[in-house]
Amino acid sequence: MKFSIIIPCYNSEKYIEKCLRSIFNQTLNKKEYEVIIIDDGCTDNTIKIAQNYPAIFLKTSRRKAGGARNKGIDNAKGEYLIFLDSDDELYSNDCLEKLFNFIKDEDLIYLPLITTNSKTGELEIRKMAPSTTKEDMIANTTLLGPAYRCIRKETLGDIHFTEEIYYEDVLYAMKIMCKAEKISCFEDTFYKYNKHLDSMTHSSFSIEKQIDFISDALKLIKLATTYPKYFNAIMQRLERIDINKRMNDIYIQLNEEQKKYI
Q: Catalytic positions, please?
């Protein structure tokens, strides 16, 4: 089996059918991929709707997206892993077949996605340029979400997402980029990223989310010592994250919270 498509779910009843329809309408032989749905404590009809499709169902208990994806990783049988959010979809009904034919023996394949530009409202393609060096990827890329990558499971090894936190993507992405030896960039649009007002990653500022982000980002220091070849690139990544600014934002919010009790 070539692919395991891993979908963490938490109360996605409005979107899950469109997501699954895009997967099960693929032209690729169904024997070449499996779909793993992880119920991370849904309280709506997400799983009831999803059970109309021949997927594998697993369950976690509010381990957030990182923990749910880890459950999928541990149970995946495919040679390569693809992560899809439950409110998004595959771009075309032949993109899996195209990816199947594209892959040779890579550890990591970057996948282009289409999304809506938050400033102009226009559709735009976001992808990694094939000429991008590995060091530049580590230091500067903004393509950090799991959906940007198709990963060989054997290469992944014991790398997992941090569980029960928000913004678990950065450290995971950096670990994968450091470890992967053979990297390529798929040219065809693979994934459609749908923005929603109730999307967790686009909801309002919260102290908890910022602390989660900073805590996971600081682990990049240890990663830099594990991969000294990419030490400078990882340090550049830390500069881009600008932890001082994020800490200042937390202090400002704490001051606002304090005023409520005065």
A: 169
